[in-house]
Design a protein that fits this description.
By secondary structure, this protein is mainly α. It contains 19 helices and no strands. α1 packs across α14. The two termini are 25 Å apart.
């Protein structure tokens, strides 16, 4: 699963994780070796992925004389609108394949293909070769996702699963926080290609613990064919109310995926982060001589992950007893406000506030979305519906990549009016809010919103 999908489980369980830890401080010792193996795998895989994604769109459009590839923003938007939806679609197929042929074999495939994709991306300069290399990376990453969560599910029981999954989801954000914060600034000063080589090493080396330490978990023999997987998909798609809700909610994720594209371009092209740099360096100066820290593209991902790490338990406590749809609307309203703040000023601290407020909106809305899917799904199909709730990411990223790129070129590059770009995306957020309000009034199952 993608990090943004996993916010639900993290937030719903984060408070319980504390309670379990307080009641049974020794429960962490109950996890088998396989659990810790996949926790380490998750940290390095997610760290590698978010390390690359925190700067990918900048690298691809950066001029050749500055170490980039000089692609047009529109062409990068096409790449992102293909590879990111694949990341949400592939786990359905790879999960079914792994259940039939084995987790360990699927992990070998995932790490080998993923590492190769990262390595080739670091070498490639032609658009078509970069595209193919990133497709390989996504094929590996999409194959990896369901295996880790499946292993953890089979390495825990009702007594320690809450703590186990809590550690797992914090690990995801830890990787997304540490790699862009520490490694990316160092590597890109040497060569942008080193970022991809780092990710190739970070994922390729996981073949070793998979070979020597990871054990195939015991699981019931699966008879689910790929034909059955597609049949299940059509079964869910036939529920038009569910699909309408997914389509509406996808509007918010069009905004979210701008954090990996247009927001980064805007930061590089129009933002002067000197006030933030001076503040951080004044603090760092208390501990070291002549610090020279600079806020750059990778720190947008750091801010998002860091906000979640710091505030998720607090936000979960606030919303744990609130109704799903009103909480989703409140979260999307905050996210829309965060995007709108970017339109009102290009001041450094205003930019920071916009990103943080958007992240708080994200961690407020998304847990309740998954919770709501569980509420409205038929009793005998809850797991199926939750599995296909990923469609919000397919639609949001598929539209968001191309829309963001073409809109940025029009409003920012041609008209020099970035405020219009953020205002446009804010209107998409407003439309999402209105859509959910109408859904709650006319289509939502009574008593379940």
């Amino acid at each position: 699963m993608d990090r943004t999908k996993l916010i639900y489980l993290k937030s719903e369980r984060s408070v319980e994780v504390q309670e379990v830890t307080e009641k049974n401080k020794g429960s962490i010792k109950s996890f088998p070796r396989n659990y810790w193996v996949v926790i380490v795998m998750e940290f390095f895989e997610r760290g590698s992925y978010y390390g690359v994604m925190s700067v990918l769109s900048v690298y691809l459009v950066l001029s050749i004389d500055k170490g980039g590839l000089g692609f047009t923003k529109e062409s990068v938007g096409v790449i992102k609108s293909v590879i990111t939806p694949m990341l949400y679609l592939l786990p359905i197929l790879s999960g079914a394949i792994a259940d039939r042929f084995g987790y360990r074999k699927m992990l070998f495939f995932a790490f080998a293909v993923m590492s190769t994709g990262y390595f080739l991306t670091g070498l490639a300069t032609a658009y078509s070769l970069v595209f193919v290399s990133l497709l390989l990376m996504v094929l590996g990453a999409g194959s990896f996702k369901p295996i880790i969560s499946g292993t953890i599910a089979r390495s825990t029981d009702e007594n320690n699963s809450t703590l186990g999954f809590g550690i797992f989801y914090w690990t995801i954000n830890l990787g997304a926080f540490v790699f862009p914060l520490i490694l990316i600034p160092i590597l890109k000063e040497i060569s942008w290609s080193y970022i991809f080589f780092m990710a190739a090493i970070g994922t390729g080396m996981l073949l070793i613990p998979n070979l020597l330490i990871y054990k195939e978990p015991q699981r019931p023999k699966s008879t689910k064919t790929l034909g059955k997987v597609f049949a299940d998909m059509f079964l869910v798609l036939a529920d038009w109310r569910f699909i309408v809700m997914i389509l509406i909610y996808s509007g918010f994720w069009i905004l979210y995926f701008q954090m990996f594209d247009t927001v980064l371009w805007y930061l590089k092209d129009h933002m002067d982060m000197t006030p933030v740099n001076n503040f951080i360096n004044s603090i760092a100066g208390l501990f070291m001589a002549n610090p020279n820290w600079k806020f750059d593209a990778e720190h947008v991902t750091v801010m998002n992950a860091g906000t979640i790490i710091v505030l998720q338990i607090f936000i979960s406590n606030i919303v744990k007893k609130t109704k799903a749809l009103p909480t989703m609307i409140a979260g999307i309203s905050m996210g829309t406000l965060g995007m709108g703040i970017l339109a009102i000023s290009s001041q450094a601290w205003v930019f920071m506030a916009g990103i943080i407020i958007f992240s708080i909106g994200e961690m407020t809305a998304h847990p309740k979305f998954i919770s709501y899917v569980g509420l409205i799904a038929p009793e005998d199909k809850k797991a199926l519906y939750l599995g296909y709730s990923f469609l919000y990411g397919v639609i949001g990223s598929g539209i968001g990549g191309v829309l963001g790129a073409y809109s940025y070129v029009h409003f920012v590059d041609k008209l020099n009016n970035p405020s219009a770009l953020w205002f446009m995306f804010s209107l998409i957020g407003v439309a999402t809010i209105i859509g959910l309000l109408l859904f709650a009034k006319f289509l939502a199952p009574k008593g379940k919103h």
